[in-house]
């Protein structure tokens, strides 16, 4: 195999697929025969299908700089791109109809992420886009025509422009194990430190014994020793290794950089400590609720029993334990279980409007591979879609 394409999109994930869609659409649309998607695994879009527990949380009604980590100026520019591109409307024009839930998360109306992939694949098929699977790119070399792309098996393809959409290091079962950053660093791009993000936390086991399976709506403060680092609200789920749930995901990216990461859990954010003390005192005085069950109806019964075991009859101590349950974090479940990667290719060397490399003309870098990560709630797919589409628009203009 040695064929010259106008554009090779490396990686058939969220950003690569939307990049290919845009290359074949609208102003300056390319012909399908001139575009190739090169995907490492046996199918494109495997991760996309798994998103949002299979329901595909594609975006969010509220997208702002506060929802992302990375270079502030780069993210500001991405937000401008997002406003221009309107990825949800873009998907609608493809036939993917979405709706928001009560928290603002946007899903396909079908609540099936695989329906999103089906429609994207059918569109690419209708445009005769080339898709080559089981092609792990291990080298991209620039020459006078464009780029030579070499696979692990030694195949070679040539393309005038390359969109690197190979993802990050999270969830290697979907083809993203971090080895593909080398495709960018070979051009002099710098890689920042990488951490698993949106990931479950391992905690000390003793204080959560017997709580596995209990879910609570909580306010959570992650501290380094006593110093507050990040706060969040949402669902927390006790597991056999520690804690999971969206509130845990929200603070998980910070854990690895702290010396003494501790979770301070408020199980009743809507009730102040003083009010809680009064409620418990009154219950105690009334006397008909057994001491052991004093927290019944306030927190999950098993949790109430656990707190009783720790605090006994002491109402003040009990209220404190409910409002600030301390849990030492001993680690995360790591990249294999993370939904996204914190860190990536440094964005200083990327044009924030076009996503073209400032170090190599004709090379574009998009999606999770870059040092931008979003919160839980559709923010990472939004970045992947927007950056993929923006890069494709720039590629078409450059080829005009
Ligand atoms: C279980 C799970 C659930 C998630 N749920 C959500 C959600 O609901 N909402 C949300 O916003 N985000 C979610 N995310 C995060 C989101 O899916 C990713 O941030 C997003 O898919 C990144 O898009 P990408 O195109 O940059 O990379 P990816 O989607 O990871 O795609 C990269 C592709 O490149 C391929 N590849 C890698 N290396 C090579 C190579 N050398 N050659 C060729 N191909 C290569 C990979 O096989 C992969 O197909 C979830 C992630 C996981 C793991």
Question: Which architecture name of the largest domain does CATH use?
Answer: 3-Layer(bba) Sandwich
Strand content: 25-35%
Spatial gap, N to C terminus = 27 Å
Tertiary shape: elongated
- Total count of domains: 2
* Structural class category: alpha+beta
Largest sheet: 7 strands, mixed
CATH class descriptor of the largest domain = Alpha Beta
Counted by DSSP, the helix tally is 11
The name CATH uses for the topology of the largest domain is FAD/NAD(P)-binding domain
Gyration radius from CA atoms, angstroms: 24 Å
Number of extended strands: 20
- Into which percent range does the helicity of residues fall? 25-40%
At the fourth CATH level, what is the homologous superfamily of the largest domain?
FAD/NAD(P)-binding domain
Give the low-pLDDT segments. Answer: none
Mean pLDDT: 96
Cofactors and ligands present?
flavin-adenine dinucleotide
């Amino acid at each position: 195999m040695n064929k010259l394409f106008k554009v090779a999109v490396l990686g058939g994930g969220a950003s690569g697929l939307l990049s290919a869609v845009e290359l074949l659409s609208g102003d300056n649309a390319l012909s399908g025969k001139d575009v190739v998607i090169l995907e490492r695994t046996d199918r494109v879009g495997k991760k996309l299908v798994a998103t949002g527990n299979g329901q595909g949380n594609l975006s969010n009604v509220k997208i702002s700089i506060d929802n992302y980590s990375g270079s502030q100026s780069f993210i500001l520019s991405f937000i401008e791109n997002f406003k221009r591109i309107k990825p949800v409307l873009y998907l609608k024009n493809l036939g993917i109809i979405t709706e928001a839930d009560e928290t603002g998360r946007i899903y396909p109306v079908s609540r099936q992420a695989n329906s999103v992939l089906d429609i994207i694949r059918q569109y690419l098929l209708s445009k005769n886009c080339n898709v080559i699977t089981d092609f792990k790119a291990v080298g991209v070399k620039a020459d006078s025509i464009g780029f030579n792309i070499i696979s692990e098996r030694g195949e070679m393809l040539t393309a005038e422009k390359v969109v690197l959409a190979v993802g990050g290091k999270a969830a290697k079962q979907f083809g993203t194990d971090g080895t593909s950053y080398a495709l960018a660093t070979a051009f002099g791009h710098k890689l920042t430190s990488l951490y698993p993000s949106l990931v479950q936390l391992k905690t000390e086991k003793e204080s959560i014994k017997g709580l596995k399976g209990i879910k609570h709506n909580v306010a959570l403060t992650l501290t380094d020793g006593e110093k507050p680092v990040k706060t969040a609200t949402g669902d927390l789920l006790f597991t056999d290794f520690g804690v999971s749930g969206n509130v845990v995901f929200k603070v998980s990216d910070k854990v690895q950089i702290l010396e003494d990461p501790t979770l301070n859990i408020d199980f009743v954010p809507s009730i102040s400590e003083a009010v809680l003390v009064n409620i418990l005192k009154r219950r105690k005085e009334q006397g008909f609720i057994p001491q052991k069950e004093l927290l019944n109806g306030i927190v999950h019964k098993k949790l109430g029993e656990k707190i009783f075991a720790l605090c006994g009859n002491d109402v003040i101590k009990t209220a404190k334990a409910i409002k600030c349950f301390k849990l030492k974090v001993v680690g995360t479940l790591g990249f294999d279980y993370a939904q996204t990667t914190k860190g990536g290719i440094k964005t200083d060397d990327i044009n924030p409007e076009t996503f073209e490399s400032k170090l190599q003309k004709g090379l574009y870098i998009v999606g999770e591979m870059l040092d931008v990560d979003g919160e839980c709630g559709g923010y990472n797919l939004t970045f992947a879609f927007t950056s993929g589409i923006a890069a494709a628009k720039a590629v078409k203009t450059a080829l005009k």
